[in-house]
TrEMBL record:
It catalyses: 3'-dephospho-CoA + ATP = ADP + CoA + H(+). Pathway: Cofactor biosynthesis; coenzyme A biosynthesis; CoA from (R)-pantothenate: step 5/5. This is Dephospho-CoA kinase. It is found in: Cytoplasm. ATP binds at residues 8-13. It comes from the Bacteria. Keywords: ATP-binding, Coenzyme A biosynthesis, Cytoplasm, Kinase, Nucleotide-binding, Transferase. The lineage of its organism: Bacteria, Pseudomonadati, Pseudomonadota, Gammaproteobacteria, Celerinatantimonadaceae. Catalyzes the phosphorylation of the 3'-hydroxyl group of dephosphocoenzyme A to form coenzyme A. Its main location: cytoplasm. Belongs to the CoaE family. Its EC number is 2.7.1.24. One of its GO terms (molecular function) is dephospho-CoA kinase activity.
Length: 199
């Protein structure tokens, strides 16, 4: 099962609650951070392409610097995705083979459509949020101005595109308690589906 949603939609909270039920989770963002650690070939390739200005003084990837550069040079996004996505997919495939010991495995991929990783999932769960609420959350959480928040949202697939590929949707339009209730309902549904599949 794959979990996705726009930035600041609440998908991290949903994933945390599902993980607390003992479900194996594979987070593409965690893998994406691992493959650009110092010494990894992805970081070397990024450094060769963008120059040393995308590194911190201690040789780590300066994410903010790279993000700002990509926003100002959107044509470079394609190169970066071609560099990272195949490496991320290989590690996801490895982890799926190694860790699938629970009734279902949750694959958490914020950029599910953009990466093409939706092909890896039996079902797709989308956490959806009102666009105005989303922008407000980005500004508060990431300490950015509204214009930059709008740019971040525009760089991802649209709300309509995500909803079009969804098998299941959690609308994050209420309290945390309501979000948890909806999450647990989907979790129970997935347990039943897994049970039926292997019956």
């Amino acid at each position: 099962m794959a979990l996705t949603g726009g930035i600041a939609s609440g998908k991290t909270t949903v994933a945390k609650w599902i993980a607390q039920q003992g479900i194996d989770c594979i987070d593409a963002d965690v893998i994406a951070r691992q493959i650009v650690e110092p010494g990894q070939d992805a970081l070397k390739a990024i450094c060769q392409h963008f120059g040393k200005q995308v590194l911190t003084a201690d040789g780590h990837l300066n994410r903010r610097q790279l993000r700002d550069y990509i926003f100002n040079h959107p044509e470079q996004r394609h190169w970066l995705e071609n560099c990272l996505h195949p490496r991320i997919k290989n590690l996801i495939d490895e982890q799926l083979l190694r860790t699938s010991k629970t009734p279902y495995t949750l694959l958490i991929v914020p950029l599910l459509i953009e990466s093409g990783f939706d092909k890896l999932a039996d079902r797709i769960l989308v956490v959806d949020i009102d666009p105005q609420q989303q922008l407000k959350r980005i500004c508060q959480r990431d300490q950015v101005v509204m214009e930059q928040a709008e740019q971040i949202v525009a760089s991802q697939s649209t709300r309509q595109e995500r909803l079009a590929i969804a098998d299941d949707v959690i609308y994050n339009d209420g309290s945390l308690a309501e979000l948890k209730q909806k999450t647990m309902a989907v979790h129970r549904q997935y347990l039943q589906l897994a049970q039926a599949k292997f019956a």
